[in-house]
Amino acid sequence: MDTVLLQFIRHLRHHGIAVSPAETLDAMRVAATLGYSNKQLLYDGLQSCLAKSCQEQAQFAECFVKFFNFTNASTPPQQDSDAEASTAEHDASGNREPGNNSEPGSHGNSTPALPGRGSGGGGQGESLQLELMQAAAEIGLENIRYPSQRNLYRNRLEQALAHSVTGLELHQLEQGKQEDRQRARWLRQRREQALQQAGELVDRQLQLNNQAETRQHQEARMKDMAIGAIDSYYRKQLPELVRKLARKLASRHRQHYRRSHRGRLDLGKTLKQNIAYDGVPFRRHWKSTRKTRSELFVLCDISGSVATWSELLLVFLHALSDVIPKTRSFVFCNESVEVSDYFQRFSSEQAISEIFRQHGMASSGYGSALDGFFTNHGADISRHSTVIILGDGRCNGSATGIESLRKIYQRARLVLWFNPEARNRWDTGDSEIRRFRSACHHIAECGSIRQLERLLDDLLTVLH
After folding, report:
1. Distance CA 289, CA 55 (A)
2. Which of 47, 192, 251, 410 gives a 20 to 30 Å CA spacing to 72?
3. Cβ neighbours for 191, distance < 8 A, ≥ 6 positions apart
4. Which has the minimum average pLDDT: 82-96, 148-162, 391-405?
């Protein structure tokens, strides 16, 4: 059943749940220990090692139901002969204790078990589902992509199931004793149910693959589209997409290690260098974290014209807090205000909501914002500091604060300006980007999620 579990893990990854190789091995051990007969027990065990957060637990529950409950016809085939059914019921009632409910698969006399196929706590219905999923893994059902392939994979699935009981064996059983005839009827019903569930399994796998491809295509389009052109329905999904991209960047830019005479033992290099000594660690290799003293100041314009971009940048940088621990966030419409403590007190969504409720919904005033930022926090800026300013640079005819920005430029390691507007709109109307460019190391367009991701990727490369 490892193949079925690997397919389920791939299904989780398609739905945005990151599963590492170590977690995959843990899930295999859990499945081998608990088995597949009790779905609730399997669900609890796999959730404990594959879902790391409350959000992932909700996604895991949805994926588990879609993957394992591919059919409602989970009731095992019953005897259809009235006489034989009553006889079987009479025989079973003699050994039944008062108060016990007869469930399919719970007693040996209710549904006969095939040799080599357990009829444990999950019953014959779940046993049949597991057989189908094993057969689906053997024929590569996960590769189905188009509705025109349904019949092809259904025929392959039926052929994979045909080896269990042949028509000749059924005919021989029907010609035998009453118990053999009863068994033959049960097996024939089981075969019919298997054929029905085979079609449902093919449809389910096709639906899962189409959903995964649709989600991937949708995310790719959302990353490339200008954020301002995205429909409001899909715009609500942008923060989660940004967090997903931030996790990828964070895993790519973890603290690097260097050779050292103390620190963490580099087990791989130690074993490699001591092969000649039969693994005795005469030559030990150490590694220690390369400390980075970089600190980041983020100044975001949250006026109505660029509020969405500022929200996404704050969410992105908050999700990268493990990689850039020294990050201070500021927002402004007129006066700059530090909001770093909001992300420490609230969740990301609540922090953004509080920030915009208390400090947003006003017109931009770059002059007062930059002057106030340098006056209050200029002394904290050093050669280890990187300053990011997000805004369209439109001052509405008011002061620009260019002198304060030049002083920041002289003190900081890097001053970066992210402009959500397209380049062909820069220096038009009341835009002062040309003047701001003289006091920045780099000005870049960040109109889409992909552009923002690349900018932060390059920034992390420079900082590390």
Report:
1. 31
2. 47
3. 161, 165
4. 82-96
